[in-house]
Amino acid sequence: EAKLHELSFCIFDEQLERKVSAERHQTERFLAALEKHELTIYLQPQIDLKSGECVGAEVLCRWFDQELGTVKPDVFIDIARKQGVLAELGIQVLSKTTEVLRKWQRDYEAIPKVSVNVGAQQFTSPEIVEDFLYCIRDVRPEQITLEITESDLMVDPVLALTVTRRLRDHGFKLAIDDFGTGYSSLAYLQQFAVDILKIDISFVQAMLRDEQSKTLVNTIIAMARSLGLETVAEGVETTEQAALLKELGCHFGQGYYFGHPVSPDDFEKQWLADKKA
Ligand code: C2E
Ligand code: CA
Ligand code: CA
Ligand code: CA
User: Which residues form the EAL domain (predicted)?
Assistant: First the structure.
């Protein structure tokens, strides 16, 4: 019996070892890709629910590796966080975004605003505001919305408050991402002087089959309106969801129903073609 145990521990050890070494390999390749600036960005349209116009785009980071293939952002963002390089990733994403905005400003009359995701770890870098401003240079901060999750704001609320205030003073817009999934009250979040609430995908996708989710979505929209905030619904996948959100007074929708995240070139072709200057 003892032997059998030993054997199963052996197999378990081997599996664990294989998993650990695969993760280490993935981490090494990620760090190399970051070093070589190989990460790219995709853009997903944000639609004005009343007019049907594309008025914004969320920037989503992408990593394609020759050997590992496409690795999901949830996976490599987690690696970046653990390796302490999320700020570096953030700057690379912001520079790529700036390149896109510069081109759009040259070629189009009216261009959508862009939203960039910012993680808690980025707040701890002391030069974050200066780095952001240097990175975007001639592009106006007003063109850029920074998306921060409720839980990331709460990692270090005092620091987050200081940094978001400074960013906002320079003209960046502020959005709370995945809104409704955290534990903080909106009254508390109001201190952050946010401009936009992004209603979490889970409520949007449940609201047609679950009365509670619908009530929650309705309440978030009503609350946001009374506070003068804009609302974006995430993960809109069907006509019915889009129609209900519009009826409830949500301003903007984002999701596969309107468009998937695509490369900057494809985004231009699909969403800006009729706006040539
Ligand atoms: P997120 O900020 O909540 O981004 C929205 C995610 O929902 C994206 O996943 C997007 O592709 C996906 N999505 C959009 N529409 C739909 C839909 O209709 N249905 C469904 N099921 N999903 C939809 P993605 O691109 O895999 O990114 C995952 C997460 O990784 C993001 O969640 C964000 O937290 C993080 N992330 C991505 N890029 C960056 C970045 O540049 N910096 C940081 N800090 N985080 C990033
Ligand atoms: Ca986001
Ligand atoms: Ca989100
Ligand atoms: Ca999310």
Answer: 23-275
